[in-house]
Amino acid sequence: MSKSIVVKRLEIPTVDVAAVSAALDRAEIPFHKIETVNWTDYPYCPEVRFRIAHTGDSLLLNYRVTEDAVRAAAQADNGPVWEDSCVEFLITFDGCRYQNVECNCVGTVLSAVGPDRSHREFLTQELLDGIKRHSSLNPVNLPSAGPVSWEVSLIIPVATYRAFGLKSFSGITARCNFYKCGDRLPTPHFLSWNPIDTPTPDFHCPEYFGEIRFE
User: Fold this and answer.
1) Count of alpha carbons within 13 Å of 4, Cβ hemisphere only?
2) Domain residue limits at 162
3) What is the pTM of this model?
4) What percent of the chain has pLDDT over 90?
């Protein structure tokens, strides 16, 4: 059965990305778990939670993770963040194209839009710079032994989704999924929020997105 989320609108004029977690605490925004193991060849399931709210013109995302090891080799945006300790948010507003925002554990992001995995247009650096990030980990001095607990917060402005012509998130219903992966970690894993039914790991499956409704 497909999952759904109602995203609360917060009436706050501005928020610093380092204060997103505290703002979501004050608003009592609940966590959701990314815990579905879809492929038996990859049974490892770290503890992963996320919560989401919006301000009309921005999404506020906060992920919290505890896993056996971390990796953050991708230091430049639109690099292979999925090979690192990575959290992902994929969404479609029109049912024809979807956009991924992927972020490794130190705040390097990747974002592209298109109808499928093979036909995607990467966002410009200017748009990527608009996505504010804050991580609890220091990219220069990552923990060498686990378990490691970390969190990352994102502020994603509505301009990030300009391919869909969005002016505001308010009142929109869309389809999405959330993921945790680590293709090149000592124990690779591929977790999702909404279940996926494919033979091998594949997050680019909008047919398995759940519903997301923005107040």
Assistant:
1) 7
2) 4-214
3) 0.97
4) 93
